[in-house]
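Team,

Forwarding the record for the chain on the shared tracking sheet. I've put the sequence and predicted structure together so nobody has to dig through attachments.
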Amino acid sequence: MKLKLITESAGEYIIETIDKNPKTLKAILDKLPIESTALRWGDEIYFETDIDIGLEKPQEIVKIGDVAYWPPGKAICIFFGLTPISRSVDEIRPASSVNVWGKILGRIEELKRVSSGEKIKIILV
């Protein structure tokens, strides 16, 4: 299944869903469309939601392009580079464990344009 991420400054992206965390994915899909305000933490964009689900198959390390849910912040996270707590140049480390449920397709590097405070949206394609 494919979703669309819409940003003000970096355009639109396709998110391809993955079945790694099916309960998390279902919770996300049930809340679409999701609109929020982007926040930045290094090369991660995250935004609060009203989704409340715990850890499913948690990961402490993610890959470029991963889209995840972060239970402590009830937030969706999009990883496109290093975070402030990454321990090496090839490690992308969230603030704490996340449930990965999707992958950004396409020109991921342009997400660096997104600033804290801008509107962000995820819709079904």
